[in-house]
Amino acid sequence: MKQKNRLLYFLIAAGGSIVLAAQARAQELSKLPYVPTPQIVVDEMLKMANVTAKDFVVDLGSGDGRMILTAAKTFKASGLGVDIDSKLVGLSNQAAKSQGLDERAKFIEQDMFKADISKASVITLYVLPDFMEKLRPKLLKELKPGTRIVAHDYYMSGWFPDRQAVLTVPEKVDANGTDKAYLYLWIVPSIVSGHWRMDLDLGTARPLPIVLSFNQEYQMLNAAAETVLGALKIESPTLKGEELDFFLTVGGINYRFTGRVQGDKLEGTAVSGTAPKPIPWRANKLAPDRK
Ligand SMILES: C[S@@+](CC[C@H](N)C(=O)[O-])C[C@H]1O[C@@H](n2cnc3c(N)ncnc32)[C@H](O)[C@@H]1O
């Protein structure tokens, strides 16, 4: 790797100077260099994304193919590597064949911005910050809720990761000028923003109509709950892919609601210290003007 790129990687990975980050942003997107992720970091990234045999992993900018080859070999997953460099793609396909992994590990020559990522359950990335920023709308638009995105060293500003970790990796020093590897994991969230109508059946004469409202920034939620008699206390809303979780106090009893987002429906169960068994609940999305 050229001295200039090495310095750029080092400074941005280390928290980076604003000046160099700006240079990286101004950099031609097509000049993303080939720098392999050390094997120990590859392993940790795939572990962080909890990759299993059920997963389809897509590495955008797949280099020598190590991410997908490891996902197939060690984690028994299937995967696709996409790289713009035909030589690296050729080497990766050869490696897949020689390791007997070519049924599950495939590599194609393509611009990552044109790749079909809709079938991925895990995306892996080791790309510069301007690539991360440019990829973000594609990732959010094309990936299914619950898809895990795991990145080495660079993050998407403003989208707080669901998990992050720092590793000390001495072999990074030569190529990157630092022995630190920063790992980030995001889980693509369902869309829950807006108003939802729930008729909560607590075994009283009539179900209680409640309007749940969520403001959403990526997976971060603010929630409100209202009945005709006034607001209810709703706390700690969390969203992990399609899984929604919050605490709601009704009639002085605090219930923990867990559920799944399925398009315009929410469905799950609520439990409390006093309810003898979980209470099923459902909510339907209201049109924006029909709160
Ligand atoms: C930093 S390397 C990462 C390699 C590999 N993912 C890893 O972690 O070891 C980035 C890779 O992206 C590829 N690349 C650069 N621009 C690309 C583009 N527009 N579309 C697809 N691949 C690209 C480069 O050829 C290079 O192999």
Describe, in short, the structure shown.
By secondary structure, the chain is of the alpha+beta class. Helix content is 24%, strand content 37%. The strands form 2 sheets. It has an 8-stranded antiparallel barrel. The chain has a 7-stranded mixed β-sheet with strand order 3-2-1-4-5-7-6, covered by helices on one side.
Heterogens = S-adenosylmethionine
Q: Order of strands in the sheet with the most strands? A: 8-9-10-11-12-13-14-15
State the helicity in percent bands.
Answer: 10-25%
Q: Judging by the overall fold, what is the CATH architecture of the largest domain? A: 3-Layer(aba) Sandwich
**Helix/strand order, N-terminal first:** HHHEHEHEEHEEHEEEEEEEEE
Helix-strand category = alpha+beta
Q: Looking at the structure, what is the overall shape?
A: elongated
Calculate the mean pLDDT score and round it: 90
Q: What fraction of residues sit in β-strands?
A: 35-45%
Kindly report how far apart the N and C termini lie.
Answer: 57 Å
Main beta sheet: 8 strands, antiparallel, barrel
Number of strands: 15
Query: Compute the gyration radius: what is it?
Result: 23 Å
CATH topology of the largest domain: Rossmann fold
Number of helices: 7
CATH class of the largest domain: Alpha Beta
| Residue windows where pLDDT falls under 50 for at least 5 positions | 1-27
CATH superfamily of the largest domain: Vaccinia Virus protein VP39
What number of structural domains do the residues give?
Answer: 2
